């Protein structure tokens, strides 16, 4: 299945990282990671940084799955607001999930500071808009619970929002703890870095068609008949991980995005904040380093690729209409559009760790709108487990809560 269609901005902005060949001989290794997107890259980074060599295999060219279609916003807010999440989970679990997501933004930043890689990481503020008066009441409840547990947040009323941003909405939640990134550049940078250091082997165009547990780990069969033997297996292949799971743990969603032609720097709203709304389906936007405006949303349940793709023009036109209602004074022209498929869970949290009964198979499934921060958490938890260390976050994001 194609994970996206159209012209994702990142693949046009960056050179394609495609000089590595498929697996051509059977190998025996310690840890195999299936999936070369941002999740697999962060897992490999953590393992290699702690002296644990690993192999990444992917049936596609490196980093050209859903990572290439990401709008790459890093926010500590989870798809399910904290005020709702505490009703679905224990309060301590819900709060820990939010605190972990907040910390993960700084941890992602540290990855690129320590490696010296340029991933176009930028710290940004975030603005969560109340779409109507009913939503404003919900935001007030959300403001109170975030403040109670020390999460960064400030409430803005209609007047302040209008004066500061020129936005006509009943109110908003503001924080200065968000960030944005070039996910494709980040992923290929990490893969290239650790491949060059010698701790990581890369095999794109290598599909795992069968896996079998052995006494010492797993034996994998590839599409071209090669065998990979490993002690540990990490599944970082997003919703395609269903092949390895005994049950369905996520729902598929189609999402739409576009990027505009560059606009004058003076046209960008204050702080170039990440902006999103309470209204569903989602609408969110960010800027790029060359002063383009990237926006996305209009999510619908995934049915098939054909329907998803047929709706691309209609959905992106709706995104443009919403933007123009929000910022009528900014003249924009659409340049690239794309659509993709991602996964979501009932509580908005990822699934990280071993599925009960599947020893030595570790899942790094950063489902939902926080895929990058969840991937950072998954990388840390899996690495710690392989090192024999414990982490309280493991219980928050594990399969036991399903």
Automatic annotation (TrEMBL):
> Which InterPro entries does the UniProt entry name for this protein?
FAD-dep_OxRdtase, FAD/NAD-bd_sf
The record's GO CC annotations read: cytoplasm
- The secretion signal range is none
**What Pfam families does the record tag this protein with?**
DAO
Q: SUPFAM superfamilies, per this entry?
A: FAD/NAD(P)-binding domain (SSF51905)
Q: Where is the FAD dependent oxidoreductase domain?
A: 30-383
Bilayer-crossing regions? none
The name this protein carries in UniProt is: Glycine/D-amino acid oxidase-like deaminating enzyme
